[in-house]
Amino acid sequence: MRGEVRNLILNLTSSRNFTLDIANAIWVREGAKQEKEYVETIRKYYRGEIREIDFLNRASS
Questions:
Q1: Residue 38 is part of which domain span?
Q2: Serpin domain: from which residue to which, for each copy (predicted)?
């Protein structure tokens, strides 16, 4: 499934007649351990990013 999603994104974004804008991010608790393999999978297959946020502090969320 991951490969198919990655290929779809690459195919759609490489077309000159088509524009695909994606806002891909996963928000995790600030200071939470992020598994390297998981982060790499999100970046490679989904062109996403993992970002930290302080869910307890309303000013940052």
A1: 2-16+23-53
A2: 6-59
Which residues are CB-contacts of 17 (< 8 A; sequence separation ≥ 6)? none
Look at residue 31 in the predicted model and tell me its pLDDT.
93
- How many domains in the chain? 1
**Model pTM above 0.70:** no
Residue for token digits 């790499």?
40
**Two tokens at 10?**
């690459």
**Sign of the dihedral defined by the CA atoms of residues 50, 54, 58, 60, in that order:** negative
11 occurs within a structural domain: yes
